[in-house]
UniProtKB/TrEMBL annotation:
The lineage of its organism: Bacteria, Thermotogati, Deinococcota, Deinococci, Deinococcales. It comes from Deinococcus metalli. GO terms for cellular component: membrane protein complex; plasma membrane. Keywords: ATP-binding, Nucleotide-binding, Transport. The keyword Oxidoreductase does not apply. One of its GO terms (molecular function) is ATP binding. The keyword Nucleotidyltransferase does not apply. This is ABC transporter ATP-binding protein. Pfam families: ABC_tran (PF00005). Residues 9-227 form the ABC transporter domain.
Length: 228
């Protein structure tokens, strides 16, 4: 499954200041960067601003200064509804906690975004099955999240993230709750997604996982710098 032609993910003078008590925290210092296709690992200690960056890249949060653009579309120029629609078309997300819907089976979880996108039921079931096969979980299609191991649930979450064939995949500590071997399996899925032409941004504080990425960014006290 090859991703559609890639809209470049670019940030220009992107920063975020949060109010904090009487003062403020510069969670992200002004950053100008183009995220290349492939897997970019973002490493940095807890509280350094990694999730702040990811939330801005997704348009979940509004920057204090600067812009996030995807293929020339500046996220802040879109309305909330347009942004949600844009995310559905172009983004996939994987978080530390798989965030699967507990009352839906693995298959239904993967189908869910396709249903939102209005895909007919037969087509979306076929696609969801193919995606589960891609992450090696076709035999788990009928299982509820509670019946899956942590690594399996995370792979279902990846299948779900890939359902709409997004060009961008944003991952916040997806291996954070997994043992290192399972973490590497999950990473392998993200590498595959990147090889298919996607731009994958992977936040991790696991240096061994980060070492396997194509590109590397480091965050310290809100300052992002390239390390390759
Ligand atoms: N919604 C928020 N309101 C106020 N401060 C926040 C908020 N989100 C994050 N911060 C602060 O911004 C800094 C960076 O946080 P975060 O991006 O979550 O770091 P990381 O993901 O690297 O652990 C921290 O000092 C954190 O306390
Ligand atoms: Mg974080």
């Amino acid at each position: 499954m090859t991703a559609a032609p890639l809209p470049t993910l670019h940030v220009e003078q992107l920063s975020r200041i949060y109010p904090s008590g009487d003062g403020q925290v510069q969670a992200l210092a002004p950053l100008t960067h183009t995220f290349p296709p492939g897997l970019t690992a973002v490493v940095g200690p807890s509280g350094s601003g990694k999730s702040t960056l990811l939330n801005l890249l997704a348009g979940f949060d509004t920057p204090t200064t600067g812009t996030v653009s995807v293929g020339g579309t500046v996220l802040t120029t879109l309305t909330e509804t347009q942004r949600a629609d844009f995310r559905l078309k172009h983004y996939g997300f994987v978080f530390q906690n798989h965030n699967l819907v507990s009352i839906l089976t693995a298959l239904e979880n993967v189908e869910f975004p396709l249903m939102l996108a209005g895909m007919p039921v037969r087509e979306r079931t076929d696609r969801a099955r193919a995606l589960l096969a891609l992450v090696g979980l076709e035999k788990r299609a009928g299982h509820l999240p509670s019946q899956l191991s942590g690594g399996e649930a995370q792979r279902v979450a990846i299948a779900r993230a890939l359902a709409g064939n997004p060009e961008l995949l944003l991952c916040d500590e997806p291996t954070g709750n997994l043992d290192s071997r399972t973490g590497e399996l999950v990473l392998g899925q993200l590498q595959d997604a990147a090889r298919q032409g996607r731009t994958v941004v992977l936040i991790t504080h696991d240096r061994e996982i980060a070492a396997l990425a194509d590109h590397h960014l480091q965050v310290r006290d809100g300052v992002v710098s390239a390390v390759d």
